[in-house]
Write a structure and sequence with these properties.
The chain is mostly helical. The chain contains nine helices and no strands. The chain has helices at 21-49, 68-94, 98-128, 143-162, 170-197, 201-230, 234-258, 272-304, 312-339. Helix 1 runs parallel beside helix 3 (98-128), helix 2 (68-94) runs antiparallel to helix 9 (312-339) and helix 5 runs antiparallel to helix 6. The protein is flat, with a radius of gyration of 22 Å.
Length: 355
């Protein structure tokens, strides 16, 4: 896919009416942009904007224990990796390698999620180290984990609903099924454990019933996915669309019940000094996420329009600005972690150029 010269858009189809490889790569990149953007925003909403003083209990963070210093050093190292990835994305885009841009963007999205988790955990550790602080008490359910699982199931169902039959490759269906099964298993295990530990008679039974409802809906949908894989047709694809709805609804209900306040434990109690430290670190992390969301939106705009578009120069300028904002955000976050205080406020970069 050349980015110029012929005057033809790579989103055009080839002579036989079959979409070109460049068109397919652009289409896939748009999908990756949408997923990455939603995931980054969700994690930021749950861990940064909520400002709850709770630890982040993921496997990748268990190695840090109660060490703020280990967490801080890891975050700073990851900000350097993020800067490298933003540079790679721009270079690949300039060479018209949309497939590679998509791969780098997925890696960047995962890194931003990891960095956000680490930052929220570091903010908690720093806050509870201040005088008079009382650490958080765990509940029956981890709100962050189950909400992330809900999002992954919703995304998988969304892929099944929006993917045309011709694009439903065995590999895609396998990936969707495996990811969905993994997240459904986590939700099942979390609710079974909550049911066992709960002292409330209604809650004990409702957790079990919620799992039963979700499992039945999941079995019906996964059977449809298996059928469309072995006998692809519009009929079998439409069944996937039909049975995605009940699964999304049952997972939404399960997570809604599981994240009621009485199941979530108690956030840490901190004084104004601890709150200031927490806010400084969360603010630094938010500046990174905001810039990465903006960069992702710029990539989507570029992928969606032909090189001949009159807006292309503006899109590329916005991309360069957002890449600079990522770098600035990383510096702000690193400074906040080192000083445990709020650095300068990052000015908005083209804040009204993206809805």
């Amino acid at each position: 896919m050349a980015s110029g010269g012929s005057g033809k858009s790579s989103s055009e189809v080839s002579g036989g009416g079959i979409p070109s490889s460049g068109s397919l790569q652009r289409k896939k990149l748009i999908s990756i942009c949408d997923h990455c953007k939603i995931k980054m925003q969700l994690v930021a909403d749950l861990l940064l904007l909520s400002s709850e003083t709770r630890p982040v209990n993921t496997e990748s963070l268990s190695v840090f224990g109660e060490s703020f210093e280990k967490c801080r050093d890891t975050i700073i190292a990851r900000t350097k990796g993020l800067s490298i990835l933003t540079h790679d994305v721009q270079s690949q885009l300039n060479m018209g390698r949309f497939g590679e841009v998509g791969e780098s963007l997925m890696e960047m999205g995962e890194l931003v999620v990891s960095l956000t988790e680490c930052s929220a955990h570091a903010a908690y550790l720093a806050a509870v180290e201040t005088p008079g602080a009382q650490p958080a008490l765990p509940g029956l359910v981890d709100r962050y984990k189950v909400t992330r699982c809900r999002h992954e199931v919703e995304h998988g169902c969304g892929v099944l609903k929006t993917t045309p039959l011709a694009d439903m490759s065995p590999q895609l269906l396998l990936e969707v099924s495996q990811n969905m099964s993994k997240n459904l298993k986590f939700l099942t295990d979390a609710c079974v454990l909550a049911s066992e530990k709960s002292k409330d008679k209604f809650a004990k039974e409702q957790f079990k019933l919620s799992v039963k409802c979700m499992s039945t809906s999941a079995s019906a949908l996964l059977a449809c996915v298996k059928e469309v894989k072995t006998s692809p047709s519009e009929l079998t694809r439409n069944r996937c669309v039909l049975f995605s709805g009940p699964l999304v609804q049952s997972v939404y209900a399960l997570v809604g019940f599981a994240t009621e306040p009485q199941f979530l434990g108690k956030a840490a109690t901190i004084n104004p000094e601890g709150k200031a430290v927490q806010t400084a670190i969360l603010g630094g992390a938010m500046s990174v996420v905001s810039a990465c969301v903006l960069l992702t939106q710029c990539l989507r705009d570029i992928a969606q329009h032909p090189e001949s578009s009159t807006k292309m120069s503006d899109y590329r300028e916005r991309l360069r600005n957002s890449a600079c904002a990522v770098s600035d955000g990383c510096n702000l976050l690193s400074q906040a972690l080192r000083e445990r205080s709020s650095p300068r406020t990052l000015p908005p970069v083209n804040s009204n150029s993206v809805n």
